[in-house]
Amino acid sequence: MSSHAALSDKTYAELAEIAARYPQPRSGLLPMLHLVQSEQGRITPEGIEACARILDISAAEVSGVATFYTMYKRKPVGDYLVGVCTNTLCAVMGGDAIFERLKEHLDVGNDETTADGKITLEHVECNAACDYAPVMMVNWEFMDNMTPGSAVQVVDDLREGKPVASTRGPRLCTWREAERVLAGFPDGRVDEGPGAGHASLVGVALARENSWSAPSADQRTESLGAGAGDAVEEADSNPAEAAAVDESSSATETGAEKDEAK
What we know:
The chain folds into three domains: 58 residues, Arc Repressor Mutant, subunit A (Orthogonal Bundle); 116 residues, Glutaredoxin, CATH 3.40.30.10; 45 residues, no CATH class. Strands 2-3-1-4-5 form a five-stranded mixed beta sheet. The chain contains ten helices and five strands; from the N terminus they run H-H-H-H-E-H-E-E-E-E-H-H-H-H-H. Helices cover 52% and strands 8% of the residues. By secondary structure, it is of the alpha+beta class. Strand 2 and strand 3 form a beta hairpin.
């Protein structure tokens, strides 16, 4: 069986292109796997073999990476991968309720795809957006401050082909299109939408209102250097104290040894 029969010549060439970006070609394995998913909709044996051949490593090594990271899928994914955060904060803020509502509405369980192939639903661990809890992601783009109702509206719009924009990002593309971007092939949407939300910028606003500023690199270096010097000087200036500690430890050990001997 050909090691890359299911991959187009264009994709195989792009896999080699990714590997060539790095001084150590195997460093390109992660984006290469994303490219495989962008064409085949999942990580396939053919894709694993292709990556192994290009990188001159074993298929087992590639498979070990592909099965370690949850972003790599071993079964087909729908047009939109919807991930609901059910970690502690999102869960108590409504994440569990959102996930249960979507399971009921879409008639699927965790890591399952709707009959029309449009939505794959999964629960995910922390999306690193706790200030916007509860959070849902669609093809790795943030949907913030969700409710069961707003989550249902998002998936319904996506299934109907309506344009949907991320809360802090661009218009949503399909999962395969997103995978191609993760492989390092831009789609031209990087500057669409806001880059940060209000909650993320509160600290900046407070700093500006109070004329706060971070110390310069030189100031931080000087501060760290002075602290280290003081610590060394303090240790060197108290040899008697250090000796007393050593003597006390020795005496304690000796007493313990005597007790044990009895």
